[in-house]
Amino acid sequence: MTATGEHPGPDPAVPGENGDGALREQAEAVLRDLAGPHARLRDDQWRAIHALVADRARVLVVQRTGWGKSAVYFVATALLRSGVAGSQVGPTVIVSPLLALMRNQIAAAERAGIRAATINSSNLEDWDNVRAAVGRGEIDVLLVSPERLNNPDFRDTVLPQLADGTGLLVVDEAHCITDWGHDVRPDYRRLRQLIADLRPGVPVLATTATANGRVVEDVAGQLGIGPDGAHTLVLRGSLDRESLRLAVATLPTQAERLGWLAARLPELPGSGIIYTLTVAAAGETADYLRERGFEVASYSGQTDLAERLAAEEALLANKVKALVATSALGMGFDKPDLGFVVHLGAPQSPVAYYQQVGRAGRGVERADVILLPGHEDEEIWRYFASLAFPGEGQVRAVLAALEEAAKPLSTAALETRVDLRRARLEMMLKVLDVDGAVRRVRGGWTSTGEPWHYDQDRYERVTRTRSAEQQAMRDYITTRGCRMEFLRRQLDDPDAGACGRCDNCAGGAYSLAVPEEATQAARERLARPGMVIEPRLLWPTAMKALGVPLTGKIPPGEQADPGRALGRLSDLGWGTRLRALLDPSTEDGPLPPDVFAGVVQVLAGWGWERRPSAVVSVASRTRPQLVRSLAQRIAETGRMPYLGEAVRTPGPEGGRANSAQRLAAVHAAFTLPPEVSGALAVPDPPVVLLVDDRTDTRWTITSVARILRQAGAVAVLPLVLAAEA
């Protein structure tokens, strides 16, 4: 079968008009069970279903959110399982990116009498039962997360069975399979091998709402690799969303943006989603809106699973006005009557933005989509850019460590050999696994011994793409043209034209006036200082590999107590002030009065179990005046003695990125001068307030607290200006 390209209008060769009427009638009957008595298949839905069922072809469907892509694979599944177009086949396997989306899809399938189950990280106890039900033919649809494809047990035992017995493979959110996609997930790349291992004649369907021309070409090429040499049928429609009213409201400060949101939220239709760029911003925004009397819930990748489920259900039932969410909600939520999407901060890609706003207006005539960009957005973009694929030297160090090891190495053990954060290290290992250089096994990772090429061109290409996407997002914010047309052109929609509905097309842009009372309330909320710093209780594993003789639990007599930070660097409020103060370009000097006023508020609201009676600071290489002046002013204000500094011994800075490397760099790097240790070795030793400028891994304050406790301190209470997480 040759690729058909886009279908902008009716095609006289629609299958069913020349002998396939009975099959289409059966397909329409399944659709009515799925979507209601008046539902009818769109022409391209039927083209896709016919190609999958009658021709056992490979199909790529690129259609807007709400078009009905899931109907294609559920209807095709029902027909294939019934054997109407030949012998009955095995279950459909859907690779789906998010658990929330899986839950919605299972519920939809059951409405149509399609028996569905899932294998994912949240139902480990059900895996054996699900696999047995698949073997008995009792499951029509099996949904798996892409991360399962990299699980050793799943890969070695379940995946071969799926490749041998699958009746239809569905790749949902298929833009993730390609390096050109805006939401690249390394585990998706394993699908290439799964597709290659399928039995001849197994149909494959890939679906996405967010694919430009480069992504379409790449995904179609990967799906088209097969023993019969067949091409992929590409069905691509208009990406216009007639219900969406796009707008941008540019306000100068975070307080004004929050105040504007609180003032306008009652006017927005129904329930909706408020997206933020960081977890901290989601929490702060939700807290502020709750204080203003709104029923809202926060949602991020750090939210407990039970709380996420409760938040999703509350929004589905319109029990909350909004979910305040990070991109963790992005592709994983289906609410047809979602009335609005607001972004506090601009995503770094118009394609990602289109994906997120596409959650709104699927089953209503109008949905409002508003972007509130901020000056700090680009700092967050730069942070995410820093998480790109590591440099060749770091990758080679990991490969060498695995080659030299006599047994599999865990991720924690590898952290002692390379200075990479855990999440970035795990992402790199997944890529190496897909590339065949390493293999995940029980107990960790091993080297395959296969040669591996560092594809600098590919990584540079992705970096250039990211940079171009960020510039396009800036252009979207400032464009005077149609906003929907702009987004559709970013997705290479050939039918892109003016929508006549957005703020630029129709006028009537939202007023930027913000009630002073709302702005002042937001300003006060953002200025509210203080967050808890939980103490470290365990040493990292495998520290002996770095010459550090620490293992297991930190003894209670050597632990720090819970501490405080003035704020996170990612906070909406104090984050901006602290980023400027601690920026490498900012000259060192005494602590500014406004920052000290915030520190005083943190101290006043601490609620001591044991009040500090002395102050010690951590000697700083980069900001000695700042840290020392902070400690001295606290001591003076609290009428406590300032004992001095924990002195850093000369030597290299060492690693910083992960826990193991950071602990190795600091565990023996500090000593107490005689005046400090002498003040602690007394019959009635003090409770020490330990002062530093910032903390990330918490190993500096943990190590200094340990030597203070060993010297005699009754307790150590860390206080820092900024936490990085």
Q: What's the layout of helices and strands?
A:
Elements: H1 21-35, H2 43-53, E1 58-62, H3 69-82, E2 92-95, H4 99-111, E3 116-119, H5 127-135, E4 141-144, H6 152-165, E5 168-172, H7 191-197, E6 204-208, H8 213-223, E7 232-236, E8 244-248, H9 254-264, E9 272-276, H10 279-291, E10 296-299, H11 305-316, E11 322-325, E12 340-344, H12 350-357, E13 367-372, H13 377-385, H14 392-404, H15 411-415, H16 422-434, E14 438-441, E15 444-447, H17 456-478, H18 483-490, H19 503-506, H20 516-527, E16 531-533, E17 563-568, H21 574-582, H22 593-604, E18 614-618, H23 624-638, E19 642-648, H24 659-666, E20 670-671, H25 674-680, E21 687-695, H26 699-711, E22 715-723
Parallel strand pairs: 1-6, 1-7, 2-4, 2-5, 3-4, 5-6, 8-13, 9-11, 9-12, 10-11, 12-13, 17-22, 18-19, 18-21, 21-22
Antiparallel strand pairs: 14-15, 16-17, 19-20
